[in-house]
Amino acid sequence: MSRKTSEGVSNRAALDPFLREVQGRALTAARLSVPDDDALDCVQDAMLAFVCAYSGRPRDQWRPLFFRILYNKLRDWHRRRAVRQAVLWVTGREDDSPSPLPDPQRWLAAQDAGARLVAELERLPLRQQQAFVLRHWEGMDTETTAGAMGVNAGTVKTHLSRATERLRQVLEGHHEHR
Amino acid sequence: MSTGEERHVSETVRGLEAVTDATPRSLQTRLDAARRLAVEGGNGTARRGWLWAGAAVAVVVGALALGIVIRPNPETAPPAPAPVADADLYQDLEFYVWLAEELDSSSDSRS
What we know:
Chain A has 178 residues and is mainly α.
């Protein structure tokens, strides 16, 4: 068996464990910006696109590639929603679709200060969410995060500093009220 | 990153972990099903695409070949109907022949 074939065979075998490992965090990341059902659709679409197009890549590239696909799906969702809202506004109709920011109470199952921070993470722009999740939660370094976001390292740092600044304000407000 | 910022980050990350652990059971079940679908559906999807395209081409070629092979047997095929225009012409011709004969016979009787 050639090296390429054996790598392909072992990649296919590693697909399910990899996706099982990331699926929960991917769903949480998606739920930060879209309703639960749409988050599930985005994650499923991302998994399928990843398996079809990128499962042949080296495994050290899988994580950033997968999250790049996922955030592209989320961005597409927001663009479609913006177009839909513009059409409704022009035609003078009501928007009866679910709000993209569900009730923050749903995070309270976590029962700690982190829940409030997660609820605040929901309010951040998608790019800042993405930078925070990839850099601090997925543990990617700045360069890998930049590659996953399709931007340069400086842009990643800008998004990160804005996100952490917002979280700092929330956390300080939380401790004051205790 | 300052110590304070590190604390904010670590608290938020703990929050995200807790939220993930508390994902509703219904969502987790659907997520597992989605993962299985992706792994089974994605593997070989490209090959299956080629198979479907090949099958479609084979169907088209087969249909064309069948159309060429199946031709009506001139001996057993029903006769083609006469063109309508010719039939009308013959009918008209018979009428005019009859009319001419009538006129001839009537002129004979008058003379």
